[in-house]
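Closing statement on the adenosine-5'-diphosphate sub-project.
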Amino acid sequence: MPLLGCIADDFTGATDLAAMLVQNGMTAVQVIGVPDGPLPEADAIVVALKSRTAPVGEAVAQSLAALDALLAGGATQILQKVCSTFDSTAEGNIGPVADALMKRLGASIALVCPAFPTNGRTVYQGHLFVGDHLLNESGMQNHPLTPMTDANLVRVMAAQTPHGVGLIPFATVEQGASAIRRDITALTERDRRYAIVDAVTDAHLMAMGEAAARHPLLIGGSGIAMGLPENFRGSKHLPPRRDAASLPEARGFCAVVAGSCSRATLAQIGFARDQVPTLELDALATPDAEALAQQAIAWSAGKLEQGRPIVIAASAPPEKVAALQASLGRDAAGALVEDAMARIAQALVAAGVGRLVVAGGETSGAVVQALGVRALRIGRTIDPGVPWTFAEPTGLHLALKSGNFGGRDFFLKAFA
Ligand code: ADP
């Protein structure tokens, strides 16, 4: 039975959280969408929803369905995973989802903290910083879907819930878990249902985790999960695990499919080009998913058997992307390439690929769907935020890389 049940509002955020738990000694499985059968076996289950920008009612309904599945499976604590930049609109969805989860869990107060100091996300006096900028000056104020125009999380959260929101400030958090617990009691007495918690270092996150050991619900980024495995070890529910990241043995050929046009991915393709067979598809010259897939399949014949990874990319620099978008429209251009990459992934797996790296968030979504993947057992991290995973029920080893993640050598490092 899982100890920790997590409800993540997007796919790559779910992976990030699951990888963090594995690094801290819990086995973790990421389930795609609300689980509809028995939960996989793991210390932590992370349900990946697409609820960050869904209509509020839909986000709440999906999150409650996920909660019910996690509770039915035996989870003893719930983590509502949100983005480390607290991505949301004035209506939600963080507040309304939290309200619904609190009610269902009968919780009196929940700690809220998106801090992730390793990635430059810190909270001080309730204000969220991205590196050395306040959230609302970090570029996030221009986000197309969830513009963040206020760095004060007490205000942001208060705008999304009818319940009282308070702050547990740096001075308290510095003193450790018992001081945090004292502030939690004081806030509860003042009828606050949410406590934004300052955190500038990992030690603060650990103290916060310890203070919330008995809380049914926590709300935050992957950072807030850092202290939780230690709680479960302390209460003897979680044995020490040196092998939390171990996956079934990898078999089969190695391949990369890339549909991300992010700068990091373009550099990774450039690096791979000199070392392993690399095909760069031209979607502008062949604006047809099936024809692109056929080109890739014909090209790959005989190459997989040579034992080196192969790379198939539709990725292109901005001017080429713009040209395809101008001719087909932005959505149709994206869908065309996603469709092609999904077909190529299917063909590669049919040809014996057992280890597949996919570059691009949306591209990963399309590939996972085409391959019928239901859950990802999380293994070792390749580069920050990108672990190897074992995809059930396919038996495939998959690494799903968000566009801008990973170093230049990522495609080769993954297989090393
Ligand atoms: P990232 O994680 O870098 O944002 P995504 O896969 O989420 O990558 O998004 C990249 C989008 O660009 C996808 O919809 C993909 O289909 C599309 N795309 C890929 N190559 C091209 C291209 N050559 N022209 C136009 N769009 C492309």
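Residues 330-350 form the longest helix (21 residues). With this model delivered, the sub-project is considered complete and its resources will be redirected to Aim 3.
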